[in-house]
Every structure is written in structure tokens, then in C-alpha cells.
Amino acid sequence: MRRRGVLIPYYVRGNSVVHRTPLWLKFLLVAACGLASFLIVDWLVSAVVLAIMCALFLLSGAGFKRLIRAVWLVTPLLAAVGAFQWWQLGGPVAARIVLNVLVCVVAASVLTATTPVQALLDGVVALSKPFRRFGADPERFALTIAIMLRSIPFIAGAFSDVRDSARARGLERNPRALVLPVFITTVAYARQTGDALAARGLGEAEDSPVD
């Protein structure tokens, strides 16, 4: 299955300043960008922040093509959202919303492109440990993220394969020819993943209730 059309770029080996930045600081950067998307009210400020995030991505050496690919995949959605917001609230508000979403996408791309997956998962476990007192399981949380990171490219590749197959048969405009095969493939993949986890005892509760 191809990995074409992946929203979040994969880790790119390097020794840039961004690569050497502590993981907690990268997490903080992503969180700050998410928070800023609610606080920034001027589209010019959003544009400046987006430019800074893009500069960090390019500074990491991940490449201009990867950056364009990450942004391009959300372009249709942002175009629809931007057009609706323009109609409802005007150009400046629409521009601010679209730019703020792009800031979050690029910030997440900086994190994943400069952090190995295992280090990222270890960081998630470390950050989640304080929540053990509330019943959270950091290891399971990290496992969930690992499955998500693995599933996104699979589903994207499945959609690309189905789309190409439908186009070859002249059915590219038939929703059933696109949606149904992807749905079946995704369900089968989810069941296989669940079976693999169950075989390793990861899908079972740690403490079984005793009658």
C-alpha cells in the first residue's frame, strides 16, 4: 500500500538546530500554536506566525516539497472553509481562520519531521505520567498514537489506490466506487490491527473484575 498523500511528514534525519531542540520545547511550540489559533485576531499576525513556522520547517532540512505536500492536502478543505467565512464574516476573518489552521498544520509537521517516532512516543508517555492518578494509562495512550500514525498513511494509500482503479474504469465520479472499497479496506485493516493487539494481550484490561 502506497504512502502517498500523508498529511503529517515523517521523520527526516538531520542535525539541525530544530532537530536538537528538546522534545518538551517542541511540544510546547505545537501547544502554543494551537492556543494562538484561538487568541490571534489579526490575519497579519497569523501570516507572520505562519512564516516563522515555515522557516523552522525549512531550517530543519525537511525540504520545501514536504512542506508544500503537507499544506496542499488541506487546501480543498481550507478553501471551502475560507469561502464560507468570507461570505459570513468578511475577508479578514476568513484569512485569519485559514492562516491559523495552517499554522497548526505546519507546527505539527515541524514536530514529526524532526523527532523520531520512538522518541515522540516516549515523550508522550512521559508527559502523560502525571495523569496516572486519574486512571490514565500513558503506555496505552502512546500505543494509540502509534497506531494512528501508522494508520493514516495506510488509509491515504488505500484511497489513492481505489481512486486510480476507479479512474481506470471510468468510475472516478461514482461515490460508491470510491467510498465503499476504502471503507471495506479500512475495516479489514482495523480488524487485523485489533487481532494483532489481542494476540499480544494489549487489547485486554489489565485488571479483570473478580466475581
Automatic annotation (TrEMBL):
Identify its membrane topology class. Answer: Multi-pass membrane protein
Ordered alphabetically, the record's keywords are: Membrane, Transmembrane, Transmembrane helix
Q: Which residues cross the membrane?
A: 21-41, 47-64, 71-87, 93-121
Question: Which InterPro entries does the protein's record reference?
Answer: ABC/ECF_trnsptr_transmembrane (IPR003339)
Look up keyword Chaperone and say if it applies.
no
Q: Where's it found, cell-wise?
A: Membrane
Tell me where it mainly resides.
Answer: membrane
Know the name of this protein? Energy-coupling factor transporter transmembrane protein EcfT
